[in-house]
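Obj.: predict assembly geometry.
Materials: sequence records (below).
Method: joint structure prediction, all chains together.
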Amino acid sequence: MAFLACCLYLLLIVLVGYTLLSAIHCSSRMTIVQLIGLGPAVGAGTMGLLLFWASLIGFAPSRKVLAIIGVLTLACLLVMERKKRLAQVRVWPADWEKGDWWIVVPLVVTLAGLAMIAAGALSAPLVEWDAFAIWGFKAKVLTHEALRLTPAYFHDLTLSYSHLDYPLMVPFLTAGAYAAMGTVDDQTGKLVSVFLDVLVVPMVYLGLRWKLRRLPAACLSAIVTMLPVMFRSGGVGCADLPLTMFYAGSIFYVARWIDRQQWQDLILAILFSVFAAFTKNEGTVLVLMNGAVILGFGLWGGRRRAWVGAAAFFMGLLAIDAAWLIWSRSLPRTHEDYGSKLLSSALVTHLPKLKEIIPAMLVQTTEFHVWGLLWIMAGVLALLGWRALARPYVLALWILLGLHLMSYALAYSVTPWDLNVLMPMTVDRLLLHTVPAVIFLAGWHWAEVGTARRIAESARR
Amino acid sequence: MPYEQLARFTDQAGNGNVLLKLAGYAKTNPIVENSLSFVYYRTSYALYPRRMYVAPADQVINNGRDIMQVEFNPSLQWLQEHDVRSVFTFGNDNAGGETLRLEIRPPCDGQAGMPAAKSGGN
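Observations (raw structure tokens):
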């Protein structure tokens, strides 16, 4: 019964996402992958924010709150259906090529990998330390109390180990599952974790498919699914893969905005950026980088639309994230408090530590038992498809990846923990956040391999 | 420390809040810091909305070392005000034998940790 209730809750998330996507892409055609990947990703982020806002005005996640969200969603769907504005699902793609049948192979590999992650996750309750000490604990608190009168938990320094100031996307989504089930059952509740974590694969596929043919996009997505680090992090109940998933959406739509200047892309870039910022503190830094890159390329291009886009990005980000920024302002920071340390002059005194940190991060990328050949393959594809560097969206993604890695290296430099203990424990999890950028770069460079030869051949003909 | 054992302890703790006390070498031996962190994190999670107390609310606790440094020993009045009805004792007063021991004792007779019923083991 609890499992069924949890599945209904996930269905509600999918419906919320489909409704929002239909509103953004009025009357457009949606592929199956967009339906099962993009829609649920947007739905999950939206549901997390809705539950947060409801809690702020005094309603903790409950069946009543979920029922209200469900009724409003159905009402929106009905209205949109009457106005013929619902996105239509395109079951059979118009551009299907003969060799695309080979897609069955990477598809089976992907599904097998995801099934293994799901089976492993659902066979045990929360056992990962961070999962129960940070994320699971917060989910329990949010299930029991609304945020209107800030629960005592958030100011109890004896619980500082659970990082009182961490964002609440994953805890709220989990609390929503507990509300739907009518009980705090963390084993069944891990279905939410599995749901969020596996969504990273269709999000990656969408980004790759933008520039790559179907088969190579599916192969690269299968490689991501089968990464050992995916099995270590998938479905454990932590926020790293959800952040990776939302971040994948944010950088994909930032790249598309830089390339095409379509408002729908900017709206989705803003939404995914907000979701990432509400998932982990790292997300806040990453989305500011997204904004800086949008602004930088806007200035470079000199187009008025790009300028307005950058302003809209920051305003949208601030408007949707404002409630969290205001509410969390008074929360006690832990002794880590990377935000303050990275903005203080103390950062300069810690810079020499980078001589130790950067090589350790580089060595980590070559660890076969964690990454397979992902980083090496991405490097090789970047060399082979070097012409892609002429594309502004590829350049933008390289800049985002560079800033991303630099911010993590700097965070390590100011950490209060012993680096020799901290890095081996966390570096794979942090580098996991960069996987979407790495695989997109691999795919987008791959798309340029042999371009010059093809152009020359077509010119000869 | 197995998850099942901690789950059993939290079930046995009843409705009230719980005090975590350190005994014997667990008060000073840094080798148990990690186990102590785990016991505190896991039990706090399992007990919620009940509480496990290891220090006054204004004391920052990030790990087992912080708990060891506090040497928390609240009065009976404090225990009553915070609805503490059980005490988990972590550690072992006797040298040798089991390295970790967890006991549940009701706080009674004016001194936290006076035995009435107990269960425990590694």
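Conclusions so far: Residues 1-91+117-197 of chain A form one domain.
To do: check interface contacts against the pulldown list.
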